[in-house]
Design goal:
Layout lengths: L1 E9 L11 E7 L10 H11 L9 E2 L2 E2 L3 E5 L2 E2 L15 E6 L5
Parallel strand pairs: 1-7
Antiparallel strand pairs: 1-2, 3-4, 5-6, 5-7
């Protein structure tokens, strides 16, 4: 069984993902170790399957790099349990970089 997610990137992060702002992906509902799929699993799946360059600009220490805002259905992921949030079919997850060169 799988779940379908809409993933969006903004603030320049889309440049790391083939310059595509929006993606539709499917993930398994349950991970091989038997636990439900969460945002941490999603982050590593994105790194391994969609990220085209510079993984250090997206992932750091088993989570997103500081300066990346993560929204789950338009709500800050900090209010949803951050990486432990169990993704659900139809969720929209948005990653926005708040860091800009200058």
């Amino acid at each position: 069984m799988s779940i379908s997610l809409k993933i969006e990137f903004g603030g320049g992060l889309e440049l790391l993902f083939s310059n595509e702002r929006s993606h539709r992906i499917s993930l398994p509902t349950i991970q091989p170790d038997g636990r439900p799929t969460n945002i941490t699993d999603l982050i590593f799946w994105l790194r391994d399957n969609k990220l085209k360059e510079r993984p250090e600009l997206f992932v750091e220490d088993k989570t997103v790099r500081p300066g990346i805002l993560v929204l789950v259905n338009d709500t800050d992921w900090e209010l949803e349990g951050e990486g432990d949030y169990e993704v659900k079919d139809g969720d929209e997850i948005v990653f926005i970089s708040t860091l800009h060169g200058g």
